[in-house]
Amino acid sequence: MIVDLHTLPTVSFEADNLTGCVPHTVNFTNTTAQSDIGANCTWTINGQNFTGCTDLEYTFNAAFCYDVSLKVESPFGCVGDTMLIDYICVDEYPTANFTFNPQFPTSVNNQVSFTNVSVGATSYNWVFEGQGSTNEVNPSVTFSNVKSSTEVTVCLDAVSKYGCVDQICRDIQFKEEFAVHVPNSFTPDEDQYNPVFLPIFPPGSEINEYQMQIFNRWGEILFESFDYKVGWNGTYGVGSDKTVKDGTYVWKIIVKEGPENKQREFVGHVTLLR
Q1: Which of 54, 81, 128, 250 would you call most buried, defined as having the most Cβ atoms within 10 angstroms of its Cβ?
Q2: Pairing state between β 111-116 and 140-142
Q3: pTM
């Protein structure tokens, strides 16, 4: 009896892209020697079988690391196979997101702290309009040479471990530095010049709450107003016709302003002249 012995085929294959983002399409190439390939070949990917000894295209629709195997039957009926463990790794796209503080910086209060709240990323790239870029996770940036009432765009790229990228951009509004102009004297002498002591706020100021008090030298409240459009005319209280004497008086102004309702307090002196 004559017995012919044949070796098992040496099975091999390769893929064009081993990592990617959902959905990730990969082309597999059967690199087994042609002399070892008979009529039947079976690819196994994600629990699915595909017959054919030629190349295979497959799309991965879920984030995972996948085993891939190929079984080849030789012209003599001998079957060989090979499996590559975690051969293809697929990622979900991350979600880029960030917050920043203060919400409304100014040309003076111009340092902004950024908090990265992205999900599913392992590295980051920030781009600050006119201020360069950084790979820090939570950067703090001083915006130099930024004028008031302008917008600056900040973009964040969030990158997953397999290179999937999501981007978000936000505009930061630089407001005018809040200030109040308070005269140091006024003349309530019944003419049309400087008859009322009244602070002046920058155009566009968002005044949410307001209180102004006028004190004499003994700390007594002579006048109080909760309307920033109502000033002191040198009398004892709103609507009074009893006038105070010439001299220097202390004023105190408390305001809550802006979207953040930030409280600010100002104190000074004013001279009343008749």
Answers
A1: 128
A2: antiparallel
A3: 0.65
